[in-house]
Amino acid sequence: MPNSTPDIDATGTEAPLGEDDWRSQSKPDLSALRAELDRIDNTIQALLIERACIVEKVAQSGKPAAFRPGREADIVRRLVDRHTGRLPAQTLFRMWRELLAGTTGMQSKITVAVCETGTGAVLTQLAREHFGTATALRAYSSPAQALNEVSSGNATVAILPVPSEADSPRDDWWVTLANRTPRLHVIARLPFWTVRSEGAPAAQALVVGTAAPDRSAADRSYLVVELDNDVSRDRLSQSMVGAGINPGPILLRRTAGTASALIEVAGYLTDDDARLTTLGNTARRPAVLGAYAEPLPGEMT
Question: Do 106 and 244 share a domain, yes or no?
Answer without folding.
Answer: yes
